[in-house]
Amino acid sequence: MRFRSALFSVGYAFLTFVISTLVMLLFWMLPPKGRFYLYALWCKLVVWWLRVTCGISHEVIGEENIPDKPVIALSNHQSTWETIFLYQLLTPVCPILKKELLSIPFWGWALRLQKPIAIDRSKPREAGKSLLLQGADRLSQGISILVFPEGTRASAGKLGKFSRGGAQLASATETAILPILHNAGNCWPARQKHKSPGKITVLIGKPIPTEGKHSKELAAEFLDWVEDNKSTVGIE
Known about the structure:
Layout: H1 2-26, H2 32-54, E1 56-61, E2 72-75, H3 81-90, E3 93-98, H4 107-113, E4 117-119, H5 124-140, E5 144-147, H6 165-173, E6 177-182, E7 198-204, H7 215-229
Parallel strand pairs: 1-7, 2-5, 2-6, 3-4, 3-5
Antiparallel strand pairs: 6-7
Helix pairs in contact: 1-2, 1-4, 2-3, 5-6, 6-7
């Protein structure tokens, strides 16, 4: 699998260079929401190339639960895979990421044009305010928000500590929470180049209503859903 993983990395770099260059060249020629679909094309090609080179496929349970209006998607974080797959699945969607990623050549430069919510982890109070202000702005434009409440990637089969930032945004804007779980770390482990063939399972729950609910209540409802469903994707 080392050769296949290396082959994937070569194609991944090539696709990133090509699509990022196209984004930077065509960005101003495309309508605002149309730009998201160019980014999503990169995501789809990467997921396809991963299946071809490394034998990693996926199944989505509950895709019908994705509404046709903006949501705040809360997902566990195990891998790079879900950051790519969920973007194309939920497009148009705005990811929340650490600001350092915007400095990555080509990919980061192209992503910067789309105005993701980039936060400074060294300043948690400022990051929280930025999430609320920018998140509300994106939602008002009809764009969903993708949040990984654990902040950093957990080991396969494990869960980290969930922050309440996404729940606070959901409460402040009265936007439904879309709960998501997956086991991508089984095939594409965090902080490893080696990838293993297999099928990634993505579970999407019914949207959690937020009207009149405090962020603590919403965070608890999300955690209850995680606890009730984590065994479906093999999380302890």
